[in-house]
Amino acid sequence: MAKTSSVEKNNKKQKLILKYQEKRAALRAIIRDPNVGVEEKFKAQIEMQKLPRGSNACQHRNRCFLTGRPRGVYRRFGLGRNKLREFVMSGLVPGIKKASW
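The structure corresponding to this sequence follows.
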């Protein structure tokens, strides 16, 4: 089980990401647009820098939904490798079976 503080910090970052997602996307579109002037791009970059650092999507850490484990997490299931293995072995995940050849 991961530390509760780490999990809560990650949840807080996720809320920040969702809060500033639209504003960040609009500023990014202005910066990448080739038809926009240099001054407007510069203003958009300054506005982007004023946003909280935690609102950037790369600040979010994928964690296991059940245990909060930060490493070995499968995106498709949202579970860590340990819990995924437990669920697959007990037959709770349909369509997946242990490989053998």
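Helices lie at 4-32, 38-50, 81-89.
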